[in-house]
């Protein structure tokens, strides 16, 4: 079942929310150094994620350097943190502390869409968290539909109308090459 997460205003991470997030965070950065203050960096990521289409450089000074926060965000994405958080959200009961962060996590996943690749898109679609999609579903690639199309038995007697319909569906599975920024910003 697909659903949109209701919007919530940004608030700093509570102690309960931070405790729920900590098991998903990698302990060390790739160079082996500890991250100075991961809670503050996650706060900055979630704060920026709540602002539609805001660039990293618009981050307030008290959140730290934009380059540092964006680098931390990329490392989390490449480490699979957003994938793991989405899976945990899907399994979490309604009163779990992660549920209070659902909107923020979905918005952060939107920013991670390009870095997370098709695996993140497939996961979002399978879990039905439409709020985590970067654009309306009909404009994005649909890997599940392509898998279904591959399993269809086609033979020499397949009518031309059916083949034309299948070609149209195959083009739809690839999604649009370019999604206008206006559509991305209006998609909630």
UniProtKB/TrEMBL annotation:
Residues 13-85 form the Insertion element IS402-like domain. InterPro entries: IS402-like_dom, Transposase_6_like. Signal peptide: none annotated. Pfam families: DUF4096. This is Transposase.
């Amino acid at each position: 079942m697909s659903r949109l997460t209701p919007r919530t205003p940004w608030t700093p991470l509570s102690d309960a929310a931070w405790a729920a997030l900590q098991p998903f965070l990698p302990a060390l950065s790739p160079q082996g150094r500890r991250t100075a203050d991961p809670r503050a960096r996650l706060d900055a990521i979630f704060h920026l994620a709540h602002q539609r289409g805001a660039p990293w450089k618009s981050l307030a000074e008290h959140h730290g350097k934009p380059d540092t926060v964006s680098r931390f965000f990329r490392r989390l994405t490449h480490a699979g943190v957003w994938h793991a958080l989405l899976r945990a959200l899907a399994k979490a009961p309604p009163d779990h502390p992660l549920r209070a962060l659902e909107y923020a996590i979905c918005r952060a996943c939107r920013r991670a869409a390009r870095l997370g690749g098709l695996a993140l898109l497939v996961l979002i679609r399978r879990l039905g968290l439409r709020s985590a999609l970067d654009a309306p579903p009909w404009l994005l690639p649909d890997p599940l539909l392509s898998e279904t199309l591959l399993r269809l038995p086609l033979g020499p007697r397949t009518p031309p109308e059916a083949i034309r319909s299948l070609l149209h569906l195959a083009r739809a599975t690839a999604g649009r090459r370019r999604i206008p920024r206006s559509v991305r910003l209006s998609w909630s």
